[in-house]
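Researcher: Please predict.
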Amino acid sequence: MSYSLPKTNGLFHLSCPTGKYRVGCLDIFSKTREGKLPLLFRLYYPSAGEHNAVDRWPAWLPHSRYSEAYVSAKWPVPPCRNTFIDRLKQNISVGTVSLLSWLLRWVSGNPRICATEANRPLNERFPVVLFSHGLIACRTTYSTLCTDIASQGYYVAALEHGDSSACVRMMLDSPDGQVTWLEREELPQGAPEGELRARQLDYREKEIVQCLDSLRDIDKGDVDQHFIKLSLDGVETEESNLGWFKGLIATDKAVICGHSMGGATTVRCLANHGHQFTAGIAFDSWMFPVREDKNLPNLEKLMFVNYERFQGEKNLTTMKKYETELSHEEFSSNVITIKKARHYACTDILVAFQGTRLGRLLFGAQDPEFNSYDGLITNSELFHAWVLKAFTGDEQPFFEAINKRKEFLFHGITLK
């Protein structure tokens, strides 16, 4: 059966999470400090109370700048020079981006995210997950996956990286400050990619470590260097307070995960800071940024979830050195591949668009036996089962998760 977005009270929204906990969310910024990177992450968490009204669910695109940035990544605006023709080309491109940005919001319905903004957290201590996005993504690109993971009993800190790899990055240095925007750094045509990606990966690594340190501070009740910005205007909420989270974020049970370049970020952080992370999950990793890395992580902590349509020989050759054996007759590798899956399989892009005519034109028809939502939730199931294996040493839940979806999966890396 094909998947399309559900609708509640006249509003389209991403699918509600499958776990037993309701989910809340907040955007958290760090204040400007000497020697520290400016942080922005959306924190998803198991939420207390019954309040789950749609008017408290934030929009998937939190600002029109995000839809413009998604579109301009596909149709970049040419630089403006002094000639009339160049200025005309730029004006046409800017107008096209604005139109396509509006079309993106209209076709998707800019769905709500099924998490109640500024709801109090449940008064229990849960492990924490740091999520690293891919190129041209942002903190909300993986909202279905992140809310589903949180509903299983995790804090999920979805970063919006400040390395100029995000589609666009919201910047705010104080609660009363003015929002500015950090644009994506484009690779000049014909320029080698290695230097830019190496610089970005180094930044991401520092950012991940600092984010974990910030979560430790918040868990201790030391919140002076961080603040909340609500994405919803004109909605009555309780006075949101980072003090809510004191004693509730189990940073001693931290997990690192990410998609595409975020997968490379996961590999790097697990290799260089493995003592701080219990497990790592890399979704359809783009391995180019770590192709020359010599330091290997504890491979028993690391799982790759690949998508068949993206992975090629060169990428898999780099990944091969991170492969290790598991004690399972059918699935004996820490590299699991979802058959026929596209590179966007863990993002909200397919579930938001593939149910529309334009989405089917861009991404093709859904597999009626394993639609875009099935693929997305499979990622969440594999994540949760792998983390349970890392926390408890019990492999049975992981192999049960594999067996549940085994007709749509295969394991291992086979090079030609």
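Model: Residues 194-220 form the longest helix (27 residues).
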